[in-house]
Amino acid sequence: MNVEPTKADNLVLRRKVHIETWGCQMNVADSERMLSLLEANNYELTASGPEAADLILLNTCHIREKARHKVLSRLGVLDRIKSKKPGLKIAVTGCVAQADGKKLIELAPQIDVLIGPGKIDELPRLLEEREQTGVSAVATGFDRHKDEHGDRGAEHSTISDEPMIHIPSISGKPEVNRFVNIIQGCNNFCTFCVVPFTRGREISRPIPEIVKEVEYMVSQGAKEITLLGQNVNSYGLDLLGRDDVPADGGPFVELLKAVSDLPGVDRVRFTTSNPHDFTKPLAELFSSHPKLGRYIHLPVQAGHDRTLERMKRKVTVEEYMQRIKWLRDAVPGIAISTDLIVGFPGETEEEFEGTLRLIEAVRFSFIYSFKYSPRKGTAATRFLDQIPEDIKERRLAALNQLQDKITLELALADVGSVKHVLFVFNSKKEPGVWIGKTPEFRVVRVHSSADLAGKTLPVKIMGGNKTALVGELVH
Ligand code: SAH
Ligand code: SF4
Ligand code: F3S
User: Fold this and answer.
1) In angstroms, rounded to a whole number, what is the distance separating the alpha carbons of residues 106 and 88?
2) Cα separation of 403 and 395, whole Å?
């Protein structure tokens, strides 16, 4: 028998990539897309950490200064690994790559490839270019939207002309919940936010392409699909060539129906929904399409009209409350979460108290709360009355204290009820403990020796705290 390695065997010796993803779920979806491109170019994911890799990919976030600092300190650590392993390549992608561009390479010359979110499809080409030229390869910026003839413009497009459908999960294993980017970028320019600068203008993917990608994910074991965009409600407006959402809810409502009609999809979530473009038909879809669950994330940012105006959020508190009413009329008891910023420039005590009042009026199931972080290039950085750090700290603590109380009260109100829980994974630290989500997006922990992954089962809620409920399977 011939035991010499054949050409085919040599091909199987694949290079290893280690991927670190920070920031929002859009970055997770982008990392998966880059993994798919790398797999087609003879790479495979390594689970053995950066030391075992031939390529380290950092997919970065720029949303607050803390997120950016993380990248710089991580690059320092990776430089030490690289100095011991010649040939190891470091690629920096994501929003810091776009925002800092070549300046980042001056700070960290160990970067071999730098790619903004608008150019991730160029990763294999840039790795090749780095190999050929020996100098760092860079691609940032955004391309024109496709014109009415269907061309994506002279350059390569953000979203490739060749729809990529077979996207692996970033863990390398089948996952119950998968993320699908449906719209890139943002046209809103809220005055605190870097995203329009790091992700460019809105570009939607066509519905059939999204549907095919979801079908593939379902064939790989996905049960819950989360559709992603910085403003999902304006999905498809660019394809229609209009600025406002049609009265029937427009293309986003159409897309949600198409995805939730797919066999094998048990739950459809979406994020982020912008209150400005949120329509009544979208709220009503929750009652006609139970796969949407009984939960929505609807970021408000602040609870006073003057703050909202300076933030350029384009809705008033009253308009926000109207959206909450549409949702609660459609689905009584629907769980709602939000994002809030404290210490936005010029925020007075009275304005801050407006935010506390809003929390009490809506009774959010949970919140993501942030201290305002000035971002270079955004309008609010130039606002004169920046709030001192100690006041931001105090307001953040007060906000979280109030919300923690409400989160706990709402969670405990579930005790004694039976919820249909979709099980997502089992705890690595505690064998036999399965983690799932209720339709209201509350985390539930259940003991079971059976494999529950991907199953939706009735669970009696026995107790819980502000982070998780505890339940028992109902037989
Ligand atoms: N597109 C989403 C927001 C994405 S960014 C929306 O419009 O709701 C996620 C959250 O980060 C924001 O909702 C906001 O609460 C927070 N954030 C964004 N920029 C920030 C900044 N400069 N300082 C503090 N928090 C910020
Ligand atoms: Fe940022 Fe506003 Fe766009 Fe959200 S809607 S990504 S907060 S600019
Ligand atoms: Fe961060 Fe960019 Fe997302 S700045 S939050 S990774 S869009």
Assistant:
1) 19
2) 12
Strands 183-184 and 418-426: unpaired
Tens of pLDDT, residues 330-369: 999 999 999 999 999 999 999 999 999 999 999 999 999 9
**How much is the pTM?**
0.93
Task: State the distance from the centre of ligand 1 to the C-alpha of 187, rounded, in angstroms.
Answer: 14
Q: Which amino acid is at 336?
A: I
Residues above pLDDT 90, as percent of the chain: 88
Q: How far is the CA of 220 from the centre of ligand 1 (A)?
A: 32
Listed by start position, the domains of the chain span 11-141, 163-412, 418-473
Whether 99 lines ligand 3, by a CB cut-off of 6 Å, is no
The answer to whether the CB of 278 is under 6 A from ligand 1 is no
Q: Which residue has the least CA distance to atom 4 on ligand 2?
A: 230
Find the residues whose C-beta lies inside 6 A of ligand 2: 186, 188-190, 193, 195-196, 230-231, 274
**Res 473: pLDDT:** 97
342 closest CA partner among 353, 331, 334: 353
Does ligand 3 have an atom closer than 6 angstroms to the CB of 198? yes
Distance CA 168, CA 164 (A): 11
User: Which residue's alpha carbon is at the smallest distance from atom 7 of ligand 1?
Assistant: 274
Q: Residue 101 contacts by C-beta under 8 Å, 6 or more apart in sequence?
A: 114, 116, 138, 140
What's the 308 CA to ligand 1 centre distance in angstroms?
13
Q: Residue 168 corresponds to which tokens in the numbers above?
A: 């692996």
Has residue 74 got a pLDDT over 50? yes
> Does CATH number 2.40.50.140 belong to domain 418-473?
yes
Range 11-141 has CATH code 2.60.40.3140: no
Beta bridge partners of 184: 203
pLDDT of residue 156: 36
Fold of 163-412: pyruvate-formate lyase- activating enzyme (3.80.30)
**418-473 shares the fold of 163-412:** no
Ligand 2 pocket, mutate which of 187, 203, 230, 298 (most atoms under 8 A from CB): 230
Ligand 1 center–CA 439 separation, angstroms: 25
Q: Chain centroid to CA 349: how far? A: 32
Alpha helices in 85-116 (DSSP H): 95-100, 102-107
